Description:
Elements: H1 2-15, H2 33-36, E1 48-53, H3 58-77, E2 82-87, H4 93-102, E3 108-110, H5 118-139, H6 145-153, E4 160-162, E5 183-187, E6 189-190, H7 201-205, E7 209-210, H8 213-225, E8 230-234, E9 242-244, E10 250-252, H9 253-261, E11 268-272, H10 281-289, E12 296-298, H11 306-311, H12 318-331, E13 336-343, H13 350-363, E14 367-372, H14 380-383, H15 390-413, E15 419-427, E16 434-439, E17 444-448, E18 457-465, E19 470-474
Parallel strand pairs: 1-2, 2-3, 3-4, 5-8, 8-11, 12-13, 13-14, 17-19
Antiparallel strand pairs: 6-7, 9-10, 15-16, 15-18, 16-17, 18-19
Amino acid sequence: MNEHDSEVISGMLSQRGYMEMPEAAPQAHAGADRIADAGADGMADPDIMIINTCSIRDNADQRFFGTLGQLKKIKARKPDFVVCVCGCMMQQEHITTRIRRSYPWVDVIFGTHNIHEFPDMLEELYENRAKADNAKAAATQADSYARAKHEIRSSKDTRVDRVYDDADEIVEGLPAKRLYRHKSFVNIMFGCNNFCSYCIVPYTRGREKSRCPEDIISEVRNLVADGVKEVTLLGQNVNSYRGVDREDRQWDFTDLIYALNDIDGLERIRFMTSHPKDLSDRLIEAFAKCEKLCNYIHLPVQAGSSEVLKRMNRRYTREKYLELVRKLREAVPDMALSTDIRVGFPGETEEDFAQTLELAEEVRYDSAFTFLYSPRPGTPAAEYEDQIPEHVKHERFNRLVETMNRISAEKNAAYVGRVCRVLVDGPDKKASGMLNGRTEEFKLVDFEGPEEITGQTVDVEITESNTFSLRGKLL
Ligand code: 5AD
Ligand code: SF4
């Protein structure tokens, strides 16, 4: 969701004539130090930096403040530099208060509900600066002008700061700059009403709002006309999609899938994320019936113990989840499954954790995002008394990762010898002459081939497997 928000921000700014310098954007793992180096020794030297934040776990928060601290150095060297911050973290009062108070070099603050206002906010900032510069220039001696300008630029006076609690309605028609020509994210809904007891998202993204089905369908049609073959429908819980069309008819998620499946030229439909409590039999049936709906589902389980699930407010039991998996595999025997799974929820006993491991063995996930529980201020679980000590969390986490990786490797090994349809994403960033792409089951495949087949769907024979990817031969 955040990644797609960044694509929208990028699309809106490109439309106004700003130019993206992707090489100036440090990868999340590169750390804050590189940011301060922007402009040094031949590195890209942007005029504006926008930080889109996540607040799902504490390490994202920490990293953000580390990065923000580093930006002061750029500002000192280059007073005109513009620092913009946005995303989920801005939807939390304690975070914006801290920024407003301790980071005067931040120029624009906006939240998840007013992304569409950002280009105007940026222009407002430039106007504020011009006004402040003029006022100062009129009142200041020429020799101290440079210093005065610097002061203005580091001050809060020119800052443009607007964050809303929730959105009244969905703003349609925003451009988005896609990373790939042949595939695209498509938001179908925003927000979440589930309030899982550990999760900050309902507070940062507001209540559920579904887009009108006609708007989604026409967006997908336009994307297909622009070369897109695969769409990933996005929502915090796509299963609770409820769109109302222009004839006042209610659509659920499965209705939408059937309608999209009829679009000529579209090859693949994926979606993220599905809450197990709302996964309907009709949607399971759609996997078998809609040839474009990929045989892959991300179905976050979170934990394997019904007791823990209850305290997480997930509203399904271990048994109900396993039943869903059984039904999915009955409908589509080689359905690939991935999950979000976590250790260290407050009160998690060794027995609870053993049930998580057992569930993983039973489902045999193709892949998993594994997490350590991270208390989020403002959520109920952060107040629970029986928090698990860090060393216990880490020890369980290591065991979980080991199990998940072993299962992933075993599942991938079963692909060796098969021929898969692979949608080619493009050249491999590390190995020259190599391409990579995804199978319908979302398996990453590396193989040798010409760059020109990027965006095409080709047959690849799988020759080797690893924990996280497959290797193959282009047929
Ligand atoms: N701590 C750890 N993981 C979390 N997630 C959500 N909230 C937390 C938290 N407080 C995980 C969930 C969710 C995924 C997107 O992030 O597993 O499915
Ligand atoms: Fe968070 Fe639960 Fe909503 Fe997912 S369904 S975003 S975990 S509250």
